[in-house]
Design a protein that fits this description.
Layout lengths: L4 E3 L9 E4 L2 E4 L13 E2 L11 E6 L1 H10 L18 E5 L13 E3 L6 H10 L1 H5 L2 E19 L6 E9 L8 E16 L1 H11 L1
Parallel strand pairs: 4-10
Antiparallel strand pairs: 1-5, 2-3, 6-8, 7-10, 8-9, 8-10
């Protein structure tokens, strides 16, 4: 079961949103609803292992933990524990173009992954078996959040767009964030099987 996947026990209705002090807020807001930068986050209970796994649904809190702590999105361990010194490994669900060439910069909501988990994922996931790109990343930085953007309204704020915002965007005050985004800007594509064989020889 992937670390960032949700379980059926982890669903909950979202609190009522209001406008307060010129920004989006919850009617009954709690201190941990916002991070240190004042960004409002979607509430989500955490009870991994209870109920049934939901493989295609990301658990927002564990996604934040994995992205912010550079944990493998599958096993939850530090993603660099099997690094070859050539950067952390990211697994992209689609190749950027039919030839598999990489752009110079990429923003993703997918946390990094360790080599063993990446290899297993492309073997067991039907979608990844058809098309994926594995990249080693030397330079990366948290760049923003993905979620629901609201605008002022009466009697309550109105949701009008789902998407990402960069940190520092003036509209962040009206964002209900769900996932952290990472900008990858120094990376190259790698072959998972070749990398795994090299790791196996080292061991």
């Amino acid at each position: 079961m992937p670390f960032i996947a949700s379980w059926t026990s982890e669903s909950a209705e979202q609190p009522e949103v209001v406008q307060r002090r010129g920004r989006l807020a919850y009617l009954n807001e709690r201190p941990y609803d916002r991070d240190g930068d004042g960004i409002l986050w979607r509430r989500v209970p955490s009870s991994p292992g209870k109920g049934k796994p939901q493989y295609g649904k990301v658990h927002f809190l564990r996604q934040r933990q994995a992205m912010g702590g550079l944990l493998c999105q599958v096993c939850g361990r530090p993603a660099g524990h099997d690094s070859d010194g050539d950067g952390l490994l990211w697994l992209l669900g689609d190749a950027p173009d039919p030839q598999g060439a990489c752009p110079s910069e990429l923003v993703t909501g997918h946390p990094p992954v360790c080599l063993a988990c990446a290899r297993q994922s492309v073997r067991s996931c039907p979608h990844l078996r058809q098309r994926y790109t594995a990249v080693r990343v030397r330079r990366f930085a948290l760049s923003g959040v993905h979620g629901v953007l609201y605008r002022p309204g009466f009697p309550s704020p109105v949701p009008y767009e789902v998407g990402g915002l960069d940190f520092g965007d003036d509209r962040m005050a009206w964002m209900q964030a769900a996932q952290l985004l990472m900008r990858l800007d120094q990376f190259h594509a790698v072959d998972l099987e070749s990398e795994y064989q090299v790791l196996a020889r080292r061991r």
